[in-house]
Amino acid sequence: MLVYLTQYQLLPCRRTAELIKDVFGHRVSEGTLVKINREADRCFTGIRSLLHVVLLVSSVLHGDETGFRLKGKRH
What we know:
By secondary structure, the chain is mostly helical. Helices cover 61% and strands 5% of the residues. The protein has helices at residues 2-8, 13-24, 30-43, 45-57, and strands at residues 69-70, 73-74. The chain has a two-stranded antiparallel ribbon with strand order 1-2. Helix 1 (2-8) packs across helix 3. The protein starts with a helix and ends with a strand.
């Protein structure tokens, strides 16, 4: 959850620590958050390399969910 809050939700470390204290009643230092994020980064090293290779050989690298119009029809 800490990685999710700081990396996906982009909460600053101080606000993440405040949220954890307010919601769960536990104190988490900003240094602990930095350490946890570094550990998570190391955990994803292998998958990052694999994803790089998969994307290089993929026929589609981007899919836009908004669609587009072609000859008056939405695609």
